[in-house]
Amino acid sequence: MQRYFLANEAFNESSVKITGDDAKHIGRVMRMESGDTVICCTYEGDCYEVSLTSVEQDAIDAKVIRKLLDDPELPVHVTVAQGLPKGDKLETIVQKGTELGAASFIPVTMDRSIVKWQKAKQDKKRQRLEKIAKEASEQSHRRIVPHIKDLATTKELSQAFSNYDHVFVAYEETAKKGEQHLLSAALTSVNKQDKILLVIGPEGGFSPEEIEQMVESGATCCAFGPRILRTETASMYGLSVISYQLEILG
Amino acid sequence: MQRYFLANEAFNESSVKITGDDAKHIGRVMRMESGDTVICCTYEGDCYEVSLTSVEQDAIDAKVIRKLLDDPELPVHVTVAQGLPKGDKLETIVQKGTELGAASFIPVTMDRSIVKWQKAKQDKKRQRLEKIAKEASEQSHRRIVPHIKDLATTKELSQAFSNYDHVFVAYEETAKKGEQHLLSAALTSVNKQDKILLVIGPEGGFSPEEIEQMVESGATCCAFGPRILRTETASMYGLSVISYQLEILG
């Protein structure tokens, strides 16, 4: 069933008012009519099955049929800190990471990031990523939309490590040394509800100074398998194996 | 170190001759000179560190320094059978699947595939995917280049299930029922060197007839986590968790 995330104002006790792009999508793209049902979610994670009662061009009314109880969220809160990659790779990372259960994303200007975000364009870039996260959450039946946080430097990121229970850095030098067990040791130390920060470097990887700074600040370097992954693939591997360890095996 | 897969003819006892696009890449793109080192691999999985002895425009000679012994290949042979998806998604699937360790790919025309491959264009499409697989293998330091197999139908695919030790179908109805444990039960039954077929549906999923046919032919339906993944994300999840179960935990 089609799913839409709506601002809190849209929800009344037993009715929902859908406006803007979501109303257009329901009316014009999906060509739905009164009596059709969709799922509407607050950004806080409450989801309701609703039945459309009136479909106008820019405003749709619906009545709540039932609150949904299924919860497909990861049992841990995973933030992906991604070194700014080239081109539109960050969009891919946010889309796929949202499907795979990430709770938030932090774009990070790293020593080897070739791309720089101009101050004036940062808001626009964030809005674009927020839209991608919202659409991916709707498609993958999430209960929440991941947050896109402010652009940070590696130093600022390291200073915020204390906000997390675990900080795992995907470091290919660890992969080359064959130290595969570090990842399973790291993940088996995770408890449900823990906050995890996954740190992924840009195309050129981390500088030695960044690794030193992050390790000093408490990060654990892990190999994400023995093959060298492109920057946009590393978070997909990380989120998939966190799901496997905590949702499937756990 | 830069890595190139070369035809068997390129290798002599202790020397290598690099021609064509690879020679252009080394000479013009990487601007390498005599004395620089690269890695050259046969398509059978033998890799050598070589030192360039002569760099001409279209032909490069190199001498073998040593045979490489590290093996970053998955301990199982995973074939991804992918229902034909829209747009250039199959290219993404081959690129990411190669990074994540797949051994081969089978494009499959499924009941709900919107895209059809015209007979006349099949060779060209396969060549394009082979090029993507080669480049991704080079970048991710694989020892082999995954095979791109002939286009098949779901029926033909089912008839070939006996070639595999395990056939796992990513089926979202299993996910909706909350039967998460099926995937770990499936993966813990896998032994090293086994042949695994991962079957992934197109955007619209499998038809009930396809599921029935595959299950009758011996396939196991598994949920790939509790979230609904896009078609191009499912094989990434599957390959990542196979790596985790067999390379990291195993």
UniProtKB/TrEMBL annotation, chains A, B:
Domain of life: Bacteria
Family: Belongs to the RNA methyltransferase RsmE family.
Statement: the UniProt record of this protein carries the keyword Methyltransferase: yes
An individual GO BP term: rRNA base methylation
A GO CC annotation given for this chain: cytoplasm
Keywords: Cytoplasm, Methyltransferase, rRNA processing, S-adenosyl-L-methionine, Transferase
Enzyme nomenclature, EC number: 2.1.1.193
Function: Specifically methylates the N3 position of the uracil ring of uridine 1498 (m3U1498) in 16S rRNA. Acts on the fully assembled 30S ribosomal subunit.
Tagged with keyword Transferase: yes
Identification of the protein by name: Ribosomal RNA small subunit methyltransferase E
Annotated Ribosomal RNA small subunit methyltransferase E PUA-like domain residues: 18-64
Molecular function in Gene Ontology: rRNA (uridine-N3-)-methyltransferase activity
Reaction equations catalysed: uridine(1498) in 16S rRNA + S-adenosyl-L-methionine = N(3)-methyluridine(1498) in 16S rRNA + S-adenosyl-L-homocysteine + H(+)
Ribosomal RNA small subunit methyltransferase E methyltransferase domain boundaries: 73-242
Lineage: Bacteria, Bacillati, Bacillota, Bacilli, Bacillales
Root EC class: transferase
Subcellular location: Cytoplasm
Broad class of where this protein is predominantly found: cytoplasm
Record InterPro entries: Alpha/beta_knot_MTases (IPR029028), PUA-like_sf (IPR015947), RsmE (IPR006700), RsmE_MTase_dom (IPR046886), RsmE_PUA-like (IPR046887), tRNA_m1G_MTases_N (IPR029026)
